[in-house]
Amino acid sequence: MKGVIINVDAYRRESEFERWELLRRMSAEDSIAVGEALLTSEILRLAEFSDDDHPRSLAIALGIAPRVARP
Question: Which of 22, 25, 29, 55 would staple 61 via disulfide (CB 3.0–4.6 Å)?
Fold first, then answer.
């Protein structure tokens, strides 16, 4: 019987190890691309954050004072 998982716990451990290994081997560019894809996907709309106060920007959320960019 090929393709049948006999030991579920061992399979989970091995799968988790493989996922982390793939993430470790990704280039910075690939990591950024995955992050951008997740942030702009419908998946983020499904996420629920119990402490979400809907900040207008990351800078505001971090308490960084606004500054005008100077050329």
Answer: 55
Domain total of the chain:
1
Task: State the Cα–Cα distance between residues 71 and 54, nearest whole angstrom.
Answer: 31
Rounded to an integer, what distance in angstroms lies between the CA atom of residue 52 and that of residue 55? 8
Q: How many CA atoms lie within 13 A of 11 on its CB side?
A: 6
Domain extent at residue 24: 8-62
Q: Which residues contact 62 (CB under 8 A, 6 or more apart)?
A: none
pTM of the model: 0.42
Q: What is the pLDDT of residue 21?
A: 93
